[in-house]
Amino acid sequence: MFQNAKWIWHHNIIQKNDYGVFVKSFEVDRFNKAILNISGHNHIKLYINDKLISGYVTPAPSGLNPKSYLSYDVSKDLLEGNNTIKVVVLYLGGSGQNYQNGIPGFILNLEIEEEAGVRHILSDETFSSIKNHPYVTGQPFQQNRRITPVERFDSSKLDEGPIHEPVLVLEGYHNYRKQTIKEGIVHKTYEPRLLSQSNTVYVFDADRIVSGFVGLDILSQTNQVLRVRYSEDLDGDRVKHNVANEPSETYYDELILKKGMRVSHAFDFTYKAFRYVEVEGNLDELESFSLKVEVASTDLGIVGDLKSKSYPMITDLFTLFKHTQTNNTLGLLVDCPHREQAQYLGDSALQAESIVYNVLERKPLLEKVLDDFMDAQYADGTFPFVSPGSTNDEEFSLKIPEYDLYFIELLEKRYQIDLDQKILHRYYEASKKVIDHYISKIDEQGLVRKNEHWHISDWPYPSVDQEGDYLCFENMHFHKNLSSFIKLYQDRIDQDYYRKLKDKLYLRIREVFLERELFKDHEKAASYHQGIQAFALNHGFVLDSELDAVITYIKQSGFSSSIILGRDVVHALLKSGYTKEALDYMFNYEKGWGTILRHGSKTMWEGFDDIESHSHAWGMYVVRLIQTYLVGINVINPDTYIIKPIMIDEVKDIAATIVTERGLLSFSYEVKESDVIYTYDIPLGIQVSLIHNQLTFNLKSAGILKCKKESVV
């Protein structure tokens, strides 16, 4: 797609947090169509005739082989006659946690279908570099993880005539893949509340943690520098110097102002996340001042819904999900939007639960995770702990064995959306490699032995005992994903070989870890973690004769699991028919989602304690569990659904909308005395069966069904 285009940059000195501004003017005759392909590293802004064409923070962070590129139809942006292309490039180069250093620069091919034939405008030596641009290079990073740079914008340069310099052609990249995840957009712009002001400091409250940017419109009476600092927290009446739970003196941007010059600028080259904003400078010397918060992230449609009038925390929970998932989709599914902006397999798998039911772009989002980790997979079948990332740097060279297996879970979730066989083919080799790696680690005891890497059964602040040589969760988790692998690839693999391994592993798990009807945390442990019992119940390790003991133990353990295993606890309670207990676990303990809501938070926390990051989407799987069990919407296949609501006294009404391959499916019920009123809207081509007591109704199109609790009216 780049033909004879060249990868260009402005000099041959590689330095961190460097900017390049490149321009080219050209004439266009009468034309029919114009398509522009572009890639850059790390992020670009593309302008045609001073109009921003690209989205924000683009391309999305990804690996280097292949390198992501974007394609734009610019037919309506070109003019007959003279045109100008401008490309602004930010190169990070700091060996940060969520990107690879790579080669700075960009490559571009504009293909124009003129009446006289096809013409190409290419990135090459005919571009020029602007020497005196307003972006100040070499600024420090804002986080310890070296994710985003301080953006120091010198507006005085805007008054200068551009000084053109020749460009430098670099080797660049040779393998490209079109970006399918959408680019960043600004979802909403608003004025935050002013908390305090003085001659030198303004402090604003955005009302909740948001991802995005701050925009300023200013006229200063003097030359000066304004500093805009970000944080989740206040420190007295000032903004705290931190990024989530990590200290930072540099989580700010700066705007250099020229006397008498009006400046409108948004610090929008990289994502920030914050609730509070502090502006520091000689504010009494400003003739005019305006600050706006721009809520920004990947363009995604959270079109699902979940609400209840009788149990309003369910409605609030969905709002929590919308806010947090929006914050945490920043070109990839990030763990948190400020401290790391990193993509983990485990975090992504937990986020995928509710994404699959509620987000239009569910397929490209999940494929982005799978692609990023497939591209980064090591020869032995394992994965780096994050991808993309500077995992060759010792600081970010960690491995999390249990997280490797979430690759299979994510693949299964993606495949179940539409049963697309091409998806299975695409990820077969990567899936087989990770499964075979785990098989190679089964020792003479018939179990996977714990290795030296960072093991995570539950997180954060887990109470699972991991001091043994064999971890119960790791072995169960492998068995579960081995079973999924066999099911997904039953026509492609030696089933007999893999099934025998799976069956042997199952027996050894029960022989080694099962004691008095409960599963020990490891082979020598005296502890029986609630979440491990729930995982065992959900994935077939508990026999019918043991079920009562296990579910009783789960209920009696109170709130004793963290985010990862909390998913299994809620799931186990719901699937076992303990709906009230599941609601209590979610909403009525000292910890949990209800406590977060009662705290007044409008985004989900990293864990259930009021520390660390306060915008982590991985705990929002409960949205889908409520949609699946209380509302009762179950996917059989992409065109077949069974709805079997669970009704309890605490919830008199509930409504949900979910995403299907044929459109949005909406369903609700309301209990009025002895009647149940069902309301539904079913997309054309979807078969839906509603089970009410012992009766089954086939639902089509939109309608209302009124039932007695025992018979149909």
TrEMBL record:
Catalyses which reaction(s):
Hydrolysis of terminal non-reducing alpha-L-rhamnose residues in alpha-L-rhamnosides
Regions annotated as coiled coil: none
Q: Where is the Alpha-L-rhamnosidase six-hairpin glycosidase domain?
A: 310-624
Q: State its Enzyme Commission number(s).
A: 3.2.1.40
- Provide the GO MF annotations for this entry: alpha-L-rhamnosidase activity
Please tell me which top-level EC class this enzyme sits in: hydrolase
Spell out the Pfam families in the cross-references.
Bac_rhamnosid (PF05592), Bac_rhamnosid6H (PF17389)
Indicate the segments forming the Alpha-L-rhamnosidase concanavalin-like domain, all copies: 199-294
One GO biological process term: carbohydrate metabolic process
- Recorded protein name is alpha-L-rhamnosidase
